[in-house]
UniProtKB/TrEMBL annotation:
It comes from Micromonospora pattaloongensis. This is DUF4233 domain-containing protein. InterPro entries: DUF4233. It comes from the Bacteria. Keywords: Membrane, Transmembrane, Transmembrane helix. The chain crosses the membrane at residues 20-45, 52-72, 92-112.
Length: 120
C-alpha cells in the first residue's frame, strides 16, 4: 500500500496569499500612521534627543509605507521584521518609541503566525 500525501489545509479564503499580504500591508500602514501621530507628543516633550527621535519616527514611518507597498516580494516580510527591531532600537532616543516598538513587534509576531497558519 502506498500512502497518499495529506491534502493541503484549506483556509476557506478565495485568495489566501492576497489576504495575508493585505494583513501585512494593513498592519504596516497602521504602524506608519501611529508613528506619524507620535511626532506631536515627541515635539512637545522637552528631552535631550527629541529631534533625533522625531527624525527616527518619520524615517521609520516612511520605511513602513514602502514595505507595505512591496508586500508581494518575499524580502518585504523580512524587512518588516527588521523594522520592528529598528523601532525598538529607536527607544534609545526616547522611551515612548521603545513602547511602540514592543507593541508593534507583538502585533507583527501575530501577523507572522497568521501567515504561517494560512499559507503553511
Amino acid at each position: 500500500m502506498t500512502a497518499t500525501p495529506p491534502e493541503p489545509r484549506r483556509s476557506g479564503l478565495r485568495n489566501p496569499v492576497g489576504a495575508v499580504r493585505g494583513l501585512g500591508a494593513g498592519t504596516l500602514t497602521i504602524e506608519a500612521l501611529v508613528l506619524l501621530m507620535a511626532i506631536a507628543p515627541l515635539a512637545v516633550i522637552e528631552a535631550p534627543r527629541t529631534g533625533a527621535a522625531i527624525a527616527a519616527a518619520v524615517a521609520l514611518a516612511v520605511l513602513a509605507v514602502v514595505l507595505a507597498g512591496t508586500m508581494r516580494r518575499s524580502w518585504a516580510w523580512h524587512g518588516a521584521t527588521v523594522l520592528q527591531g529598528l523601532l525598538m532600537l529607536a527607544g534609545l532616543l526616547h522611551w515612548s518609541l521603545a513602547v511602540l516598538g514592543v507593541m508593534f513587534a507583538l502585533v507583527w509576531a501575530y501577523v507572522l503566525h497568521v501567515r504561517r497558519v494560512i499559507l503553511g
